[in-house]
Amino acid sequence: MGARQTLGFEVEARRGEVLRVAAIGDGDTNIDLVVTGETGNLLCRDGFGDHYPVCTMPAGAGGRFKVDIINRGGVWTQVQILSN
Fold this sequence. Notes:
Elements: E1 6-13, E2 19-25, E3 31-36, E4 42-46, E5 54-57, E6 63-71, E7 79-83
Antiparallel strand pairs: 1-6, 2-5, 2-7, 3-4, 3-6
C-alpha cells in the first residue's frame, strides 16, 4: 500500500462471535486500524504507532463493519490483513 494511503473494506460479523481484525505491515512504517459500525460509529481504533494494529470487538448482534487500514508513513509498505 502506498505512502499515506488508506485501504478500506467491509466485513460481515456473525451474531454471537467475537470479531478480530489485524494488519501486519513489513515494519517500514506506522500502520493504523479503524473499525466503524454500519452507522459510522467508531468501534475500535488502534493507532499506537506500530506496524501491527489489532482490533477486537466483543460478541454481539453481528452485522457489517467498515475496516480502514491507514499507512501513516511516507513510504510504501506491504500489509497482510487477518480476520476471523
